[in-house]
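User: I'm curious whether this sequence folds into something compact or stays loose and floppy. Could you predict its structure so I can see for myself?
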Amino acid sequence: MTRVSVTGIPQDSGAPVRAGVPEHGRVPKYYAVRILLTELVDGLEEGQTLPTERDLTERFGAARETVRQALRDLLLEGRLRRRGRGTVVAGPKLAQPLSLASYTEGVRRQGLRPGRTLVDLRSWPCPAALAEELDLSEGEPVWHMERVLWADDERVGLESTYVAVARVPGLSSDFDPDSSFYAFLHERVGITFADADERLETVLATPREALLVGTPPALPMLLIHRVSRDGNSRPFERVRSLYRGDRFSFTARLSGAGPGPA
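Assistant: Here's the prediction. I'll summarize afterward.
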């Protein structure tokens, strides 16, 4: 069955999620413009430039601020991105698996070139909370390695890794910070991860983080906390990974018997 909302946009009532129009059909003006703008974007190719704000206000018969709000929504959603002084259609989000696979593997699977830029690598005394997570003594030296994450030529995240100096004493001299840390551990140190605990949440970047990743502070970010364990079930690393919410989604394969969701 097809219904037409008050905006004149056809909506498939059998779709998994309707287009955001409530049953009473009354929507804010910016959302009506957003629906029309989404239809326009769907008809363009990745990288194509949108008409100017002035052209869009004339096309949709809406105020410029109304158009700007609709554009901000699609920018935050990752459908659009800024290029110079214009706005272009963005490509699909990077689908990163929630698994023990490294960031490098996940990005390469999607045909993109992973990269990292080292921000900081130093050792410092382990604080009490981190020592408890990594089963270390308080004050024991730990490495802190912070790197900006890239996919092709685009900054997409920020990663902080904490690991005991005693377990990777040559990290600062032997490791190429633009390479996979997991590959280094496996090939050079002989450590393989067995399992990990992860927690995923949404946050806003701090001004410093936004500057490093190259995003507005108001852009929602996806934050993953991970504690990984080695083959002896010993905690090995603590990672804080911050990903752009407009460029990333995460996938997981679930299995098991029993009734489905209620």
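Summary: Residues 1-17 have pLDDT under 50 and may be disordered. Residues 142 and 164 are 4 Å apart (CA to CA).
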